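I am still getting used to backbone structure tokens and would like to learn alongside you. To get us started, please write out a protein record for me. Once you have written the record down, we can walk along the chain together.
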Amino acid sequence: MKKEILNDIDLYFITDSNLTKNDVIEDVKAAIRGGVKVVQYREKNKSVDEMVQKAKQIKELCGEDVLFIVNDSIEVALASDADGVHVGQKDESYDVARAKLGYNKIVGVSASTIEEALKAEREGANYVGLGPIFPTDTKKDAAEAIGLNGIKEANKKIKIPIVVIGGIHDYNIENVLKAGASKIAMISEIIGSEHVEHEVRKYVRQIRDYSR
């Protein structure tokens, strides 16, 4: 099952049409060439119809070897037959997402505290996106940063896969790895580059080498 790929994620790739210097589809192609095992389609400024069209293209690119997750929109996830959806604390709840998608799909949940992450785990989430680890400009309404100690505490208490996110860059990723993270999302550091494939390949290699 594709769900099993969750355990092998290293770099969690997230699109962003506002930050990219290229095109979302070209970014996804570059990320897949670079070796990612999961692509999250994150879009805030398009209509549902536009998002569905783009999501179907990404789904085809991901094929059977790369997980395709839609951020926020259960409607788009269903229409594109995505592998799952990622919901935030202010989006539709885990229960709603699970009821609409069923148990064969992945539901990930954002958590800004250990308590929120534990709640998501109890409810049945397949993974949590934990952060921000550091202050971040990518998400304007982000909660207070939980820091490296938050990663260490999460690893002690949470059994489902943990994807850490928020303010992670080239200059601090080693500290994030040292704190125990093995699944890392970096948006601006990668999407803000003109050479997405190169950046993806670099960080995939770094995370995998450290986790061995």
